[in-house]
Write a structure and sequence with these properties.
Layout (H helix, E strand, L loop, with lengths): L5 E4 L2 E4 L4 E7 L14 H13 L4 E5 L12 H18 L3 E5 L3 H9 L4 E4 L8 H7 L3 E5 L17 H18 L7 E4 L8 H9 L1 H5 L6 E2 L5 H6 L9 H13 L4 E4 L2 H14 L8
Helix pairs in contact: 1-2, 2-3, 3-4, 9-10
Length: about 280
Amino acid sequence: MSEEPVLDCAGHPLPLERPVVMGVLNVTPDSFSDGGRHAGMESALAHARGMVASGAGIIDVGGESTRPGAGPVPLQEELDRVIPVLERLRRELDVVLSIDTSKPAVMQAALDAGAGMINDVNGLRAPGAMEVVASGTAAVCVMHMQGQPRSMQERPHYADVVAEVADFLVGQAQALVSGGVARERIVLDPGFGFGKALEHNLALFRSLPALAALGYPLLVGVSRKSMIGALLGGRPVTERLAGSVTAAVLAARAGARILRVHDVRETVDALMIQHALEPKQQGEV
């Protein structure tokens, strides 16, 4: 059996031999699933503590909603939302902290506050983003998005969604490596729901084994998303738990190494059962 990778998160090695759960911490008033619930400092800290206690290996802190139709948040407002939370979490929790942002200035401030990972839905396309990543030692997740959140779901179109997403992700990863970023710091995310219709999401999900074979750890985030609701006949966000957990387990089976979820305890439980009950390959424990 080939050796599984270890993600280098600013000196915090994160083993990926089994899938790692990334817990979502939205400190925004308008996120699609839990907008406003954790915008206050004490609520955010309590939620983060709970997710770590439930088995999260990464906490992903976001201060700007990227739901379809969302507008941009001013730089200072985003900084005011996320940096104090990151600073408190860094003092209190021994866990990898991720900053969910596309702004290079927020990336830099988050790294200074102790973040060990940058999670950019814009795929490091903003001027200066790659330079911020290269100047530090944090891990980075490069995600594919067609368009921008405000309009990305209006008319997404691809000739070959799997090939186009793979080409973009590999191209950005190669640019990072050329800029001095070690491969051990890079994660790829196909960006489910970001400028993709249901048929695009399904094609990407069914191609996860091929995407996982691109040479970098794969992050999958489908938790509570509209594709889950659509597959369940139009279920609202509050009724997508079982579908989200099932999709997370299937993604792990297909090769995903990091699973970005809202429901940490349920996902960790499902992965534990999967690991215990699935037939083992020769040489596996």
